Protein 1
Amino acid sequence: MSRTRTPVVTGWFTGEGEEFRLLGTRCSACTSVFFPREDAFCRNPGCPGGDLEEIPLSRRGRVWSYTDSRYRPPSPYVSDPELEWQPYALIAVELESERLVVLGQTVPGVTVADLTVGMEVEVVPGVLNEDAETTWTTWHWRPTGVTA
Amino acid sequence: MTGEVAVLGAGMHPWGKWGRGFVEYGTVAARAALADAGVDWRDVGSIVGADTVRGGYPGYVAGATFAKALGWQGARVASVYAACASGAQAVNTARAQILSGLADVVLVVGADAAPKGFFRPAGGDRADDPDWLRFRVLGATNPTYFGLYARRRMAVHGDTLEDFAQVKVKNAALGALNPNARYRKRVTAEEVAASAVVADPLRLLDICATSDGAAALVLSSMEFARRHGAADPVRIRAVSTVTPRYPNTVLDLPDIATDSAVAAEPAADTFRSSIARAAYEEAGIGPEDLSLAEVYDLSTALELQWYEDLGLCGEGEAAKLLREGATASGGRIPVNASGGLASFGEAVPAQAIAQVCELTWQLRGTAGDRQVAGARVGITANQGLFGHGSSVIAVR
């Protein structure tokens, strides 16, 4: 039986392969960008308020900082308790043109030993977890020097 | 400057893992604070409880829960929640009532009974809750945020793992002298380095535990204190409960991203430094006037960050201040004379109140073996997730 691919959160990212992008919103009045997306109101207190339009975020950014999870995170993070815990790295990435920092997991196989602050990374599609019916998809950060 | 309120009494239930309920801990702390103040509970006009989210309804209505446990006597009641900053909000609520003339004497109580392991969000399937999302989408526990801040300091300021370890060594030495601390054993840098990595680059002994514990204060008007015979009480001169300013460009728990600075320039100082600045401005003092500081060392690296945010040194100079011994016992500006969260572990709604208890004992000169000589002015600093600043300045 094939699983359905479903984004872990609706409307936060779109596309496949080279076309994959995080999705934010931008205020038509003040140009503030929001991720996670704001769809109701602009949060800039100096803005008279404009329409919020969906925009793709920059594909590439630079590592602001990084860490990892050496122990199994609690629910609602999903992991198989039967399997030995495999640590994964988390990166906070600075997007230059949006002037914001976005967290994300790295692609599998990239550890903190492979990372430095300031390194260029790009956003790629990833799988968060799978259950009987669903493959839950997410975004991952990958150093641009890595093609695996 | 606003008016001052008197600290008539301070009390705690010792921190630990005791296996009992938060109501019992809070009641012990409240009774201790009332006894310390020499005030009968029936003469207290108002009670303010700092909420715990772990107690179900009794935790959400902590003020009423403690009032009932102490014996209903008709006092005005309030319950406040601001995550780790809940205790400071409770102190501020009490202060506002006293300064506005709504109450002469207010009892402030915070208590928690913490679960084992990582803090986790409330249950259910709640994609509209940033705290739920960061666990579901990223598995981002609190220590991973501490790890991000620590690695950033290493890259930008050149802090080392040895610097972080020395914060733990300092705080453990002070906690060993504190009968209310959970961990009362000195720790070496080698022991920190030998402990397991939890969130790179931080190890188990760099990160504070979660604890059971309770703290309480009896606050009053200066006029009531005089009538009560407290001629020279410790006074609370400032309470800062500020929020961030848009755009907040330092990644904060539980957020997955910062605000964007594309349309509005960030303020010159960060949210954390604005917390202390508001307290200094309200008190009419500066960092050079401080005798001691109690800061929220959720991690060893975060304690160093607070040195800079409180203006104890310039940006990037915290590790140097630590290495010089300025923040240790007997130094120019001892930080976490209580032993800090490193020695207590965090009992969320009690912790900011416990910081003020420590200032009270230090300013009275009754802190025993960990006494800061000649302490006259103290500051606490803390930050609650979801944008809650907290800082209290007390003087004597």
Note: Chain A has no helices and ten strands.
Protein 2
Amino acid sequence: MKKVMNMVNAINDALDIKLAEDDRIIVYGEDVGLEGGVFRLTEGLQKKYGVERVFDSPLAESGIAGTAVGMAVAGLKPVIEMQFSGFANPAFNQVVSHVARMRNRSRGKYTTGMVIRMPYGGGINALEHHSESLEAVWAHIPGLKVVIPSTPHDAKGLMISALESEDPIWFMEPKRIYRAIKQEVDTEKFSIPIGKAKVIQEGSDITIVAYGAMIREVQKASVLAKKEGISVEIIDLRTIYPIDRETIAQSIKKTGRIITVHEAIKTFGVGAEISALAMEEAFLHLEAPPKRVAGFDVIVPYPKGEGHFMISPEKIFYEILRTVKY
Amino acid sequence: MFKEYEPINKKMFQLMDNEGKIINKKFMPEISTEKILKAYKDMLFARTADQMIVSYQRQGRIFTYPPNYGQEAISGAVGQIMRKEDWLVPAFREMGAYLAKGASLKELFLYFMGYEDGLNFKNAENFLPFAVPIASQLLHASGIGYEINYRKKDQVVFTFVGDGGTSEGDFHEALNFAGVWKAPVIFIVQNNQYGISTPFELQTASDGIAIKSYAYGIKGIQVDGNDFFAMYAAVQKSFEYAKEGNGPVLIEAITYRKGAHTTSDDPSKYRTKEEEEAWDEKDPLKRLKAYLISNKLYSEKEEEKLLEGYKKQIDKEFVEAENYAAVSLEDVFKFNYAEMPDDLKHQKVEYENFLKWKEARM
């Protein structure tokens, strides 16, 4: 059976399915219980599964992540919410020093399978600390896996995989498209593998790698490019780390051109990694230098200036033209 | 005990004086002679090992080590009470508790020699690896406490931190979470007067640490951490209290780090000889030994014999650790994830190719 869902509904549905079948799963964070979180993503789950399994925690991100380490080593499967990715920073020490390392430090004796989920990204007229995209920071931490869905369907399937993973999953939800995209999603349980990218549009002239809210912008840009006779292949990365080198390399070998699009800042970002990958894996196939369309290396401007910062389809189209005509 | 020694009354819980005489019979715990003797021997063993490790370090046979010297009664007491099924969430200065949990000296040696294998305590259930970042482990204890309540298990969590660690935000968060959750966690602060070189009065303006328990709505008590009987009674009481579902307890154990912070530290730079000598009077082993000898339960002769055996055993385990197998390349890669991601496999293969080249060429 299928049902029309937005991303919020789809993630809620994944949590609902897994809460019902796995009593190790405990969902908590700031306001996630009674109210269902500030985005109402966990709405209804406390009522259904009780306050022992879905609850409001004290307002302390390090505390939330640190207690999740304890729960996980004792055999539970915590799903914790960071209210906004910009508020996850106090948890940095717990995540880097313990969540990501416990398996290695204890030589596999203790593991910290958990899901740390949070809304991230800009474009929603939010004030400061609510618009950052720090996926590259988290992807740089050995022991973590970083997942970013771009559709309700993917969000559900990836969340199911995250809840079944033995590794800690840093699950970033592009809040700009929490409710902006609706689609029919299977109501049954299904999963999408972590670590695999997906070619969502085949093309022959240029490869564009993107993820999260940028997929929609890339799709719009590809329509503009098509009018100019340029065939764009689009890869939705889905998982930032482990990065799917194979899918990206194959596509570049086919098209000879690569652009990475992300709203995170440019320098030392995911696009830099993919550009390096292009050089390492497909150097002789390249017909133009790998390109990045990304945020400026600045603090995300507040809403009145954010228009300058956000990536538009036109900006992507402009870079497509430059790369194809290089 | 909690009522009479409420932190607000500013009365440290003590049962035995510096000469080993029981001065507070009312709260003297019920403890068998065998158990007292065992506790003393455990403390003596820990001290002997500790001293030998420091000398191994001086010989360049081990990297860095944080000595326990002077603080043995705290772990010694916990070691007599903690059960196999209870959790031990350590900092890194609680050797007696590790050994009581089932960790081997050899494993401890391995860790301080630079092997991750030293943190996989094969015969110690429910014992987390040491926590070096300071106070972060306390939150793990609170989270484990949540699991115990959720699964309605009969377990208690023992966790440790130093006085310096109480300044960290995680100390506050851990006590706060445990309080809200009524988690069965015993937080033991080893207040040894210094965080490396920083004295307690530069760490906090608080009148001790136990008093902070009020802020979290939990029980707290300040104990003479060099008095084995007081530590035993306080830990026993806290253990029962937590086990019965009443929530966490904060124990502040007043002690003194007679050794250095780690073997890289030189305490003579920040404390006086007079101060050190004053604390020698309160030494935990000296006091318990005086009690045992005055009650005719123990003799110097026995101690000599014990020490001889201990030294042999410790040295044997140390030599075993020194002969431990080299770390394999596989082990560097394989524990970061449940399954090695392709990216890591790729990096491993590239390095192996280099090694092959090196062997053929160099």
Note: Chain B has two domains: 7-325, 328-362.
